[in-house]
């Protein structure tokens, strides 16, 4: 594999890692928050160990900020989305040529391609759409996340847990969700272009937490979105905790009656 392909592949893998982390941390926390606010029995189960669950939420939210920052922070030395997209544009003629695509496909015999490859060569308009999407979300990151990231890691002067939870109340949930999910859309577009020669369109991932809790495993053409796994797993755990807590209360009442 030519050096520019190796470098792009490595940067794409890093973006995938950060995209998955941002979606999982954000939506695990969102599921806990959503269910405890709508199910009194879940709220009661969590309130029995309130300090622990506040710690869990604070840790998940802090981790989500760290993952999101790795994607959008232009000052970071990690393989951010900006660096991935710049590399793709700078080496487009080499990375996405028909011969390069055919070589990549030949190196993975037996591996399914996402639909019939059309050998699409990306156009200026294709990259302009990706650039516009990234710029929009980077600007949102700078306005709503970068300030709390700075406070979170440098300027907290009271209780870390109390201050952390308070900081996240200043960010609109929809903004947080957009920032957490766009990396998956960008990664998917570049992955399909690089591996399958398909036009790099940005998908719109499901983001509404109420709908995801009701039906987590939204189909994505044979696979689910990363946030779907986070919501499913968190809901399963809270369902089990709710049942266990109810069984414990019932047993307690029975012992009291005895």
Describe this structure in words.
With 258 residues, the protein is mainly alpha-helical. Helix content is 75%, strand content 0%. The protein contains eleven helices and no strands. Mean pLDDT is 83; it is low at 250-255.
Précis, in short:
The chain is built from 11 helices and no strands.
Search tags:
11 helices, elongated, mainly alpha, 258 residues
Secondary-structure topology with pairs:
Elements: H1 3-38, H2 40-47, H3 50-72, H4 81-90, H5 92-95, H6 98-106, H7 124-155, H8 160-168, H9 173-196, H10 209-214, H11 226-257
Main pleated-sheet profile: none
Arithmetic mean of pLDDT: 83
Give the end-to-end Cα distance, rounded to a whole number of Å.
74 Å
SS-derived structural category: mainly alpha
């Amino acid at each position: 594999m030519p050096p520019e392909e190796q470098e792009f592949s490595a940067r794409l893998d890093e973006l995938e890692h950060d995209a998955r982390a941002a979606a999982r941390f954000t939506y695990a926390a969102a599921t806990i928050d959503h269910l405890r606010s709508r199910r009194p029995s879940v709220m009661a189960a969590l309130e029995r160990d309130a300090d622990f669950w506040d710690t869990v939420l604070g840790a998940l939210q802090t981790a989500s900020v760290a993952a999101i920052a790795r994607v959008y922070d232009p000052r970071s030395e990690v393989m951010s989305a900006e660096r991935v997209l710049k590399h793709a544009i700078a080496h487009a003629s080499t990375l996405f040529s028909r011969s390069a695509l055919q070589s990549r496909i030949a190196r993975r015999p037996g591996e399914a391609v996402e639909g019939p490859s059309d050998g699409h060569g990306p156009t200026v308009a294709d990259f302009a759409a990706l650039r516009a999407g990234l710029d929009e979300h980077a600007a949102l990151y700078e306005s709503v996340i970068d300030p709390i990231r700075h406070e979170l890691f440098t300027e907290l002067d009271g209780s870390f847990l109390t201050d952390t939870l308070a900081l996240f109340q200043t960010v609109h949930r929809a903004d947080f969700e957009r920032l957490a999910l766009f990396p998956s859309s960008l990664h998917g577009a570049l992955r399909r272009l690089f591996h399958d020669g398909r036009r790099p369109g940005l998908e719109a991932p499901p983001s509404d937490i109420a709908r995801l809790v009701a039906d987590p495993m939204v189909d994505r053409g044979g696979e689910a979105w990363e946030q779907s796994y986070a919501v499913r797993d968190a809901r399963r755990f809270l369902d089990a905790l709710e049942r266990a807590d109810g069984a414990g209360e019932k047993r307690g009442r029975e012992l009291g009656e005895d």
